[in-house]
Amino acid sequence: MDNSQTAIPALLTGKVAIITGASRGLGAQIAQQMAAAGASVCVNYLHSKEAAETVVEDIEAAGGTAFIYQGDVTDLAQMQAMAAEVVERFGRIDILVNNALPSYQFNPSADYTSIETVKWSHFSQQIDGIVQGAVNTVQAVLPQMKSQNMGKIINISTNLIYNPVVTYYDYTTAKSALIGLTRNLASELGQYGIRVNLLAGGLLKTTDASSLTTEEVFDYIATTTPLRQATSVSDFANSVLLMASDLSAAITGQSIAVDGGLTMP
Q1: Beta-bridge partner residues of 200
Q2: Which backbone phi and psi does 96 adopt, to 5 degrees?
Q3: Which among 209, 239, 257, 252 has a CA at the least distance from the CA of 11?
């Protein structure tokens, strides 16, 4: 867990959350902070079993409740089985965080950063992992959320959709599609008490994706950001907590940048 985080109030006491791609990075931080806020957490992972187990061990050591579940978000049947396991363990599903991301290298010189060299296979890999994955998880948890007449769905995106400082065509296009998905879900599911929102992060300090980013780059981001600081993983995770809690009961269908004001969509 990010040691810079401050004490978290018990915003999620009694809630049950599923976080996809939660074995490391932002997903792990969200899982840990949700558990610290009182939620029982399903830590979904695909390949990184040991890392997922470590996340759960850390949560339990801090007095929280969590378990790991291996499942591919691109497989609807696996997501339905995961949802069923969560309901069997905890009796409900209150929160879904769509954080899982297909394998990706943020390389500014890669062939998928130019329209002249990007291939449709690049797009399809990201769309399948990001958009199809989110559709599958929503379809898996929806019966339970509808039966409860409540739920929170939070889709994780990137501020590159607002300001493509590097033209990652495949990744940014797939993440942009989550805006349309979010708004349509919010429009349809509001009648069932289900809120759906999107949070778009900037370059977070620090995740696996930004682990090679130099302090000079982070310093530059800070000087161009209204808050004069790079957004930490813990700060972004706290924004997820806000959207998952009852404090955001009147918010749905929104896409919100969490980057210190660097982008203002």
Answers
A1: 157, 257
A2: -125, 125
A3: 239
- Residue bearing tokens 């291939």: 119
Please state whether the predicted TM-score (pTM) of the whole model is above 0.85. yes
Q: Rounded distance, CA 45 to CA 78, Å? A: 12
Average pLDDT for the chain: 92
- Is residue 40 within 8 Å of residue 65, measured between CB atoms? yes
Catalytic residues, by residue number, are 171
Q: pLDDT class for 165, splitting at 50, 70, 90?
A: confident
**CB distance 59 to 29 below 8 Å:** no
Tell which residue, 105, 106, 80, 102, has the closest CA to residue 93. 80
Q: Give the 3-state DSSP-derived string for the chain, with helices as H, strands as E and coil as C.
A: CCCCCCCCCCCCCCCEEEECCCCCHHHHHHHHHHHHCCCEEEEEECCCHHHHHHHHHHHHHCCCEEEEEECCCCCHHHHHHHHHHHHHHHCCCCEEEECCCCCCCCCCCCHHHCCCCCCHHHHHHHHHHHHHHHHHHHHHHHHHHHHHCCEEEEEEEEHHHCCCCCCCHHHHHHHHHHHHHHHHHHHHHHHHCEEEEEEEECCCECCCCCCCCCHHHHHHHHHCCCCCCCCEHHHHHHHHHHHHCHHHCCCCCCEEEECCCCCCC
Q: Verify cis geometry, omega within 30 degrees of 0, for the bond prior to 206.
A: yes
208: confidence class by pLDDT, cuts 50, 70, 90: low
* Closest C-alpha to 144, from 187, 57, 85: 85
| Distance between CA atoms of residues 150 and 248, nearest Å | 13
Residue 135's φ and ψ, nearest 5 degrees, are: -60, -45
CA separation for the pair 48, 34 (Å, rounded): 20
